[in-house]
Amino acid sequence: MEIPPHPKPVRSGYLKVRDRQSYEFALTSVAVVLHLTGGVIRQARVAAGGVGTVAWRLNAVERRLTGERPSQRLWEQAAAVAAEGARPLRHNAFKAELLKRTVERQLRTVGGTR
User: Fold this and answer.
1) Closest by CA position to 36, among listed 58, 7, 63
2) What is the distance of C-alpha 43 from the center of its chain?
3) Where in this chain does the record put each CO dehydrogenase flavoprotein C-terminal domain (predicted)?
4) Neighbours of 1 (CB within 10 A)
């Protein structure tokens, strides 16, 4: 997945969650790009990997972030919609919750809290 370049000021980061250091594959991963101007998120790009067969953009999370001021409450609300529409299988149902927690953690890391 490719995330297009953004105008500055941009904050970005990538987090890969693995079961053990020796494993190369991710249980989940999240890339976040936030374009902030005047303390407001003007544009957000959030992509997830490791929880499906391909990486994909989390459009619902992006919509929840856009136009808002960074805060812990916003990160929680945005992460809550990260797994909307997910259809986990019997042996990987834990990944929906793991995805939400990973999104929230990466949003806090990239966007900070107030």
Assistant:
1) 7
2) 14
3) 12-110
4) 10
Give the domain ranges of the chain: 10-111
Mean pLDDT of 75-87: 87
| Cβ atoms 61, 89 nearer than 8 A | no
- pTM given for the model: 0.84
Please tell me the predicted confidence (pLDDT) of residue 6: 55
pLDDT, position 45: 96
Q: For residue 49, give every residue at least 6 positions away whose Cβ sits within 8 Å of its Cβ, in sequence order, or none.
A: 1, 26, 28, 29, 30, 31, 55
Q: Is the dihedral of CA 20, 26, 28, 30 positive or negative?
A: positive
| pLDDT band of 72, cuts 50, 70, 90 | very high
The CA distance from 44 to 30, in Å, is: 13
Domain 10-111: top CATH class: alpha beta
Chain-centroid distance, C-alpha 57: 9
DSSP E strand stretches across the chain: 10-17, 28-37, 40-49, 56-57
pLDDT in the model for residue 114: 52
